[in-house]
Write a structure and sequence with these properties.
- This protein is of the alpha/beta class and 295 residues long.
- It has one domain: Rossmann fold (3-Layer(aba) Sandwich).
- Helix content is 40%, strand content 18%.
- It is built from 13 helices and twelve strands.
- Strand 2 and strand 3 form a beta hairpin.
- Helix 1 packs antiparallel against helix 12.
- It is globular and about 50 Å long.
Length: 295
C-alpha cells in the first residue's frame, strides 16, 4: 500500500491505509495479523482492551519506516453513552504527571489509562524508542519509524486520547506522533481540553465523518464537549468537504428529548449504515483523487 511515512500534512494515501488498518482492528487476532502483513507491516502485536468495554481491542504494527496503533470500536454505542461513562474526568488525574489540559470523557479516559502499560509494552516490541544515551551518529544510522494512530467510533476516541497522552505526559514517556486519522469518532473532551489538544495536534489530526453519521455529534455540545482536529465530511453524494454546509445543518438540528436521542443511539451499531467502518473505508478509497487535493 502507498504510504508517506514522512508526511507533515494530510495524505490521501495515508488516510486509505489507516482506514484499512481500522477495518483490520475488527478482525480476530490471526486475521488482523495477516491483514497487517498484507498492508506492509511484518511486525505485529495484539492488545486486549476489554477491562472497560466488551470486545475492545487494538493492535500495533510496524515496518522499517513507520508504525501504527489501530483501535477497534465497540458494537454497541450504549456501552459508552450512559450517564456514568460520559461524566468528565481530569486528564491529569487519569494520567499522573500529565500537563493540566482539562477534562475528558471518563469512560474513554479510563479505558485508555487501564490499558496504557499494555499499549506501551506492545509499541516497545514493534517500534522500540531509541536509547536516550545513544550517540547522534547511532541515531542517524538507524532513524526511528514515524508513528501513526487510527481508530473508528470508540476506537477513534481512544486514538485521539492516545495522541494526547503521548504528547502531554512527561518527557521520558513522550513518543512523537506523526498523524492521527479517525473515522466516525465521538467527541472526547470539554472545550478547555480541546483547545489544549489543538495547540499541539490539530495540524496532525484528521477526523472523517460519513454523511449523516450520528456518533460524531455526541456527547452533546450542550454538555460542553467540543471538537478537535480538522474534520473531513463526506456529504450525501460521497464528496469530501472541509467546510460542509450539510454537516453544519445537521449540527444545528435538535432532538425533541434526551429519551428520543438515546433511543436512536441505542440502535447505532459499528457495522451498519453511515457509521460502519466498511462504509468509511469504501468512501475514502473511492475519493482518493478528491482527497489528494482537499487540504
Amino acid at each position: 500500500m502507498p504510504f508517506d511515512p514522512t508526511a507533515t500534512k494530510f495524505s490521501a494515501d495515508n488516510a486509505l491505509l489507516l482506514a484499512q488498518a481500522s477495518q483490520a482492528a475488527y478482525l480476530d487476532q490471526p486475521a488482523a495479523r495477516s491483514t497487517a502483513a498484507r498492508l506492509g507491516f511484518p511486525n505485529f502485536e495484539w492488545i486486549d482492551l476489554t477491562e472497560w468495554f466488551l470486545g475492545l481491542h487494538a493492535f500495533v504494527a510496524s515496518c522499517d519506516t513507520h508504525a501504527i496503533l489501530a483501535f477497534r470500536g465497540t458494537q454497541d454505542t450504549r456501552d459508552w453513552m450512559d450517564d456514568l461513562q460520559a461524566t468528565p474526568a481530569r486528564f491529569s488525574w487519569l494520567f499522573e504527571g500529565a500537563a493540566e489540559v482539562g477534562d475528558v470523557h471518563a469512560g474513554f479516559g479510563h479505558a485508555l489509562r487501564d490499558a496504557w502499560d499494555k499499549i506501551n509494552a506492545a509499541l516497545e516490541i514493534v517500534a522500540p524508542r531509541p536509547d536516550k544515551n545513544a550517540s547522534l551518529a547511532t541515531l542517524a544510522s538507524a532513524p526511528q519509524p514515524t508513528f501513526w494512530i487510527t481508530g473508528h467510533s470508540l476506537g477513534g476516541a481512544l486514538a485521539v486520547l492516545s495522541g494526547a497522552a503521548f504528547s502531554f505526559l512527561p518527557d521520558d514517556t513522550i513518543r512523537p506522533v506523526s498523524g492521527i486519522y479517525t473515522f466516525g469518532q465521538p467527541r472526547v473532551g470539554l472545550h478547555p481540553f480541546c483547545a489544549s489538544y489543538d495547540q499541539i495536534l490539530q495540524s496532525k489530526t484528521f477526523r472523517f465523518v460519513n454523511k449523516q453519521d450520528l456518533v460524531p455529534r455526541v456527547p452533546f455540545r450542550g454538555w460542553d464537549y467540543g471538537d478537535i482536529g480538522q474534520m473531513i465530511h463526506f456529504d450525501d453524494t460521497g464528496t469530501p468537504k472541509l467546510q460542509s454546509s450539510q454537516w453544519a445543518n445537521l449540527l444545528v438540528r435538535t432532538f425533541e428529548s434526551f429519551k428520543e436521542f438515546f433511543s436512536i443511539m441505542g440502535n447505532v451499531r459499528t457495522d451498519v449504515g453511515d457509521h460502519s467502518m466498511d462504509g468509511y473505508a469504501a468512501v475514502v478509497g473511492a475519493q482518493q483523487a478528491a482527497l489528494s487535493t482537499l487540504i
